[in-house]
Input
Amino acid sequence: MSLIMQETRLQLPRLLIMGLALVMLAMAGGCARDRVEEDDGPEALYADAQRALNNRQYELAIDLYRRLTTRYPFGRHAEQAQLDMAYAMHRARRPEAAITTLDRFIRTYPTHPNVDYAWYLKGLVHYDQAMGMLRRLFPGQVVDRDQESARRAFMDFQELTQRFPESRYVADARQRMVFLRNVMAEAEVVIGEYYFRRGAYIAAVNRSRYVIENFPGAPANVDALDLLKRAFDRLELDELSADTRAVLEYNFGDRLDDDADRRTGLGRLWPFN
Output
């Protein structure tokens, strides 16, 4: 065997050992980096997420909050992170994800000190869905769309006011409930007028009665009574028409001839300043 072959055979174990050492060093470096990240702790991760949220970097905030709740699923930071993440999702226009996160928080922490805020935020998410950007730009169209989100928002705010009557969010929730009630009542009248124009007078009567029975105090009640009287006229139910007219005059006599006051859109639906 030549001297070169002997030297090569001696070098192979050394090369193998060096290669293994390099691999182990790389793995150790990776583990060290992981330990550094983990050792930052939930406080640092929460602070980073809050900083991103305050800077309106909502997607980054969502990612950081999710990372926090995954790495540190227990403790006050993880609990609060879920609420903050839901808010970031709301601001990032991800309502479905926000609602899912809030529902999970309410189920998991029903006695949490901030669970009232979870109900309030859930109502806000549904409320913004009900209104939408187009409704803000074109308030005349506020009652021309699906009312499911409005109903859900109303129920969320109602849960808040019933479960946590002393919550600081109750006052705002109640104002929004009044507005939502008015919007839903107005929507029913719009549907009733649609039926009336097409000769479906019984359907128009049913819609009018629904408004009167389920939305007391809503501005749309005067329109519902007016629609009810006209539908009775078309059905030739003179006695019912006369009774409805009497109720209308007794309760809203000063408004019957003031068409401008009855058709002011959002101005009358939101009676707060």
